[in-house]
Amino acid sequence: MTFKPNLSVKECLDHLATRLDPIIASRLTDDLGNHPWTVVLEILDEKKGFTKGYKYWTHDLQAQLRMITERLGDFGYPFDDRQRTVSTLGNELRIARKQMAHMHAFSVEEAFRANDFCVRLLEHFEDGDGLEEAKRIRYEALVALAAKEGVTEQVAAAATVVQPTVRVETTEEPSEKAVGAAEDESEVVTPDPAVLVREPSVIGDKRLEFEPWTVVPIGGVEILDDLPKKAAKEKVRAAAVEIATYEGPIHLDRLVQMTAQSFGLQRVRALRERKLAYQIQQAGLLVDADKFVWPREIDPGAWSEFRPNDSTADRPFIHISPVEIANAAQFIQTKRLGIGAEELAVAVLRTFGRQRRTKQVAAHLVRAMSRLAEAS
């Protein structure tokens, strides 16, 4: 029988969905009582300011992968370990699922890798009943891959391992890490506890703080080299959409860098940056006048949320949307009536883990606060 990569990926993802539901439910039974675990996602969506009210189902793989890769309020990351094994595998599978939903034509190698992610995830959860079937599906893909490459199964399996980021392309612009390093504080700056309080819910009464996407290697630099070919576009856009959905609103430069890192580049030159930015804009994501990318689930004009972070967070202040900063300022004003402009500025900076005002930070803060003045 001819091996069909897309059918293989669908088989492994469908199988995984049947196994993750009971794993998630059993882990949260004591915390949720009679509530289905999908209530957690409904509360997360509300706290994130998603305008579209989704109905989640326990057997939906998209919902399951969100549960195991996102911070679940006061529950934290109940399915993960200190190495973030589940988040890493889950993020890889989120992108594979996104590609499948958009009818991406998987190669034999991509099918094997997706199957391997499923196996490794079930191994982590020690799901003996589901692991045997997952290994069977993976083995069929491995046999097909070995036949295609004309090598042994062991060699074929080893060749599919994507190496960590290895290439750095020269650019005259400061890298995101360089921008972040310029903002380093001598001591850890933490948000005022008052900005973290929200209404009580099943997952706690805390506001959601900023959580960075865990970059996972989903392909090599050759994928970026192949742009704008159809297969390359699909892979790049799928990665960008998942990252933007997780972190958005996210600065376009940050999204470009994280997307490039997913394909083996630590930094990129200006020409490639423009190509990646174009693909992001063509992926159905809104890029506003300030160069911030918004996920489809958020209406920028109606969004009133903000995500505090301390100074250890991997998010330079200038990569925080002026809308988000203005939302934080407005919240602080409602809690501290009569607060002066300078005191408000200090409180806003602290909300996002900042004390020092470099030239860039000061200018970005002024832009954000001008939005607050326009809205009042």
Please tell me about this protein's structure.
The chain is mainly alpha-helical and 376 residues long. It folds into 2 domains: 5-159, no CATH class; 176-375, no CATH class. It has 15 helices and 5 strands. The protein has helices spanning 5-32, 38-48, 61-69, 85-101, 108-124, 128-149, 153-159, 176-182, 221-225, 230-247, 252-262, 270-281, 322-335, 341-351, 359-375; strands at residues 167-168, 250-251, 265-267, 286-287, 292-294. A hairpin with a 4-residue loop joins strand 4 and strand 5. The longest helix has 28 residues, at 5-32. It is globular. The N and C termini lie far apart (67 Å). The model is unreliable at 163-167 and 170-182 (pLDDT under 50).
Topology at a glance:
Elements: H1 5-32, H2 38-48, H3 61-69, H4 85-101, H5 108-124, H6 128-149, H7 153-159, E1 167-168, H8 176-182, H9 221-225, H10 230-247, E2 250-251, H11 252-262, E3 265-267, H12 270-281, E4 286-287, E5 292-294, H13 322-335, H14 341-351, H15 359-375
Parallel strand pairs: 1-3
Antiparallel strand pairs: 2-5, 4-5
Helix pairs in contact: 1-3, 1-4, 1-5, 1-6, 3-4, 4-5, 4-10, 5-6, 6-7, 10-11, 11-12, 13-14, 13-15
Q: Write the H/E string, N to C.
A: HHHHHHHEHHHEHEHEEHHH
Number of structurally distinct domains:
2
Quick one: overall form?
Answer: globular
Strand content: under 5%
Unreliable parts? 163-167, 170-182
How many H/I helices? 15
Roughly how many Å apart are the termini? Answer: 67 Å
The count of β-strands is 5
Main-sheet strand order equals 2-5-4
SS class: mainly alpha
Q: What does the radius of gyration come to?
A: 22 Å
The overall average pLDDT, rounded, is: 91
The major sheet is characterized as: 3 strands, antiparallel
Give the helix level as a range of percent: 40-55%
